[in-house]
Design brief:
With about 110 residues, the chain is an alpha+beta fold. About 25% of the residues lie in helices and about 30% in strands. It has three helices and five strands; from the N terminus they run H-E-E-E-H-E-H-E. It has a five-stranded antiparallel β-sheet with strand order 3-2-1-5-4, with helices on both faces.
């Protein structure tokens, strides 16, 4: 996405999508090393129809994070995803900037 969202806006969007009956997952940057496009704490919320708000990487790994999040929506278990320049997956998803990023992806359940 070209627009930048605050963490509060990402969480508000997650709540609105849940209230609308959608399944939702939240991705949060939990660690970075070297050159990383987004800081720790950056968030991306994903809806069950692939709509999303926020960013965990400025675009370079979002596609893979969204795909993994869609799979996780069916369960309750969170997953930590890791992308790094020495990882072949990093090149495939576009993280060739020389750093490493760890992202926690977790399904969000309504209260």
């Amino acid at each position: 996405m070209s627009e930048t969202f605050t963490d509060d806006q990402v969480l508000e969007q997650a709540a609105a999508w849940l209230a609308g009956g959608h399944k939702v997952a939240l991705a949060t940057v939990i660690e970075t090393w070297g050159s990383a496009p987004r800081p720790v704490g950056s968030q991306l919320v994903i809806r069950d129809d692939t709509a999303f708000t926020g960013s965990v990487s400025g675009g370079c790994i979002e596609g893979d994070v969204i795909t993994r999040a869609l799979d996780l929506m069916e369960g309750d278990a969170p997953e930590i995803l890791e992308y790094g320049v020495s990882d072949a997956m990093a090149w495939e998803v576009g993280l060739a900037c020389g750093g490493r990023i760890r992202v926690l992806v977790e399904p969000v359940k309504g209260v």
